[in-house]
Amino acid sequence: MKTYTLNQVTDEIVGKIGTPNRDKFEYDLQMDLIGTAIKQTRKERNLSQEELGKLVGVQKAQISKLENNAGNVSLNTLIKIFTALKAKVKFQIELSDLNISLEK
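The structure corresponding to this sequence follows.
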């Protein structure tokens, strides 16, 4: 029986790195991980969605949406949420001639 690595299977099913399908898959995965991190951390801090929303200045429904699909959220809102959750936020952009870092 032949075995395959996760990367080989992902390349075959989703597409190779750099293709539009793979880029969308990677983006959706990252957004899902962010939503999961918000939910887990909120629960660890014993906060309801409504309480977190009040800390951030958004409605409970917005927190619920973010926890289930963080794809349509602004960077500003994410920073507010993780700051309210007392998380350290690091954001970094690397281009060939530019490197921007943000820590909050």
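The helical segments are 6-13, 20-44, 49-56, 60-68, 75-84.
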